[in-house]
Amino acid sequence: MEDYHVAKFAQLREHELGLFAIYDGHLGDSVLCYLQKHWFSNILEDEEFWTDPGRSISKAYEKTDQAILSHNLDSGRGGSTAVTAILIDGQKLWVANIGDSRAVLSKKGQAKQMSIDHELNTERGSIENRGGFVSIMPGDFARVNGQLAVSRAFGDKNLKSHLRSDPDIKTADIDSDTELLILASDGLWKVMSNQEAVDIAKKAKDPLRVAKQLMAEALNRDSKDDISCIVVRFKG
């Protein structure tokens, strides 16, 4: 289990910011420690965040990746995927991700995926164009150079020339029809559809209880991967 999560609120420039993230690490936790301490600060210290949040988030992902690589954490072997969400004044949601952790929004009970799974079957061309290769061993997942099962990640210095670390970014207005947001690592999504997760989450009002129910259900379905989950319930 090499996951970290962030779920907190902060006041900045007379704005209330909800800061949420799931980091699914691999090959040690030093990269995760860096992400937990510094990722959101890389955004909030950027003046451009208040005029162009999307560009600011992209720059923060790039800055974070460069910092991890320059610190040579875990001798360059460690890395992490990420799904992050910033809620501004309870009204505007910005979601970004690299890797296969996922964010799902519920509006009128309907699941809407707010992130893109960066899997090798969809981004194989990018890996090969960068000089890498994708291999599949019997009984295993497709992997970059036989090592990593996603096409984008923070860190992974020994694979970085073949990987991307730029995020996909989506935004949504939070209105009276918006019920909740689920962020989770791939251990949940490998055994559960977006709509199944939303249907379970709608049954209870306490978001902490819902997160625990989702994780328990993933275990009941025999998930073999890391399972971390955050549920954000909106007031509307």
Question: How is the topology of this model organized?
Answer:
Elements: E1 3-12, E2 15-26, H1 30-44, H2 53-71, E3 79-88, E4 92-98, E5 102-107, E6 110-113, H3 120-129, E7 134-136, E8 142-144, E9 154-155, E10 168-173, E11 178-184, H4 186-189, H5 194-201, H6 207-220, E12 229-233
Antiparallel strand pairs: 1-2, 2-3, 3-4, 3-9, 4-10, 5-6, 5-11, 7-8, 11-12
Short characterization:
This protein has 236 residues and is an alpha+beta fold.
3D structure, described in words:
The structure is a single chain. This protein has 236 residues and is of the alpha+beta class. It has one domain: PPM-type phosphatase domain (Phosphatase 2c, domain 1). Helices cover 30% and strands 32% of the residues. It has six helices and twelve strands. Strands 1, 2, 3, 4, 9 and 10 form a six-stranded antiparallel beta sheet that branches. Strand 3 and strand 4 form a beta hairpin. Helix 1 runs antiparallel to helix 2 (53-71). The longest helix is centred in the N-terminal third of the chain and has 19 residues, at 53-71. The radius of gyration is 17 Å and the shape is globular. It starts with a strand and ends with a strand.
Distance, first to last CA: 35 Å
Average pLDDT rating: 85
Counting helices, strands and paired strands, the structural category is: alpha+beta
The counted number of beta strands is 12
- What is the count of DSSP helices, taking H or I runs of 4+ residues? 6
The helix content is 25-40%
Keywords: Hydrolase, Magnesium, Manganese, Metal-binding, Protein phosphatase
Enzyme class: hydrolase
Cofactor: Mg(2+); Mn(2+)
GO molecular function: metal ion binding; protein serine/threonine phosphatase activity
